[in-house]
Amino acid sequence: MSLYKSKTAATWLALGLGAFGLHRLYVHGLKDKLAWLHPWPTLVGVYGIQRMDQLGQDDRLAWVLMPILGLMLSYAMLNGIIYGLTPDERWDAQHNPGQAGRQTGWGAVIGVIACLMIGGAVLMTTIAFSAQRYFESQVEAAQSISQ
């Protein structure tokens, strides 16, 4: 018999380490290929932050890499919200077949609220940063044409 997979633990793993895929490893096991792909785009985004820190805001590669981190964080928060809002009966049927069901307490609800707040802030920041960089590049292109 397999170990019981807690909906609350899955929600909090998505919140804390979801960008690296640990929530998927917990829920789906070590054979989940998508979980093993999570760290790479996350690390690419972290590299973009390091580039911008070292080379400044004019580094165009950092402009492309940083939003990848924001998208990975937003995706992890969305997974946390989905895990936490899944009804207990459905969660147990999918992830704990043949085991006695357990009622989820407030831990999952608080995790969902935290995922919603962080995920919303990260997604809005990612969109704003990307839009700002896009429009700045358009202004630079228009200025170079007019000269």
Concise synopsis of the structure shown:
With 147 residues, the chain is mainly alpha-helical. It has 7 helices and no strands. The radius of gyration is 19 Å and the shape is elongated.
How does the SSE layout of this entry go?
Blueprint: H1 7-17, H2 22-28, H3 33-37, H4 39-55, H5 60-85, H6 88-95, H7 106-146
Helix pairs in contact: 1-2, 1-5, 1-7, 4-5, 5-7
Describe what this molecule looks like in 3D.
The chain has 147 residues and is mostly helical. Helix 1 (7-17) runs antiparallel to helix 5. The chain starts with 6 loop residues before the first helix and ends with a helix. 78% of the residues lie in helices and 0% in strands. It has one domain (7-146). It has seven helices and no strands. It has helices at residues 7-17, 22-28, 33-37, 39-55, 60-85, 88-95, 106-146. The model has no long low-confidence stretch (mean pLDDT 92). The protein is elongated, with a radius of gyration of 19 Å.
User: By helix and strand content, what is the structural category?
Assistant: mainly alpha
Q: Uncertain runs with pLDDT below 50, 5 residues or more? A: none
What kind of sheet is the major sheet?
none
Tally the beta strands.
0
Number of helices: 7
Radius of gyration from the CA trace?
A: 19 Å
Arithmetic mean pLDDT: 92
Percentage beta strand: under 5%
- What level of helicity do the residues show? over 70%
Please state the overall shape, judged from the principal axes of the Cα atoms: elongated
List the helices and strands in order.
HHHHHHH
Task: State the end-to-end CA separation.
Answer: 72 Å
Count of structural domains? 1
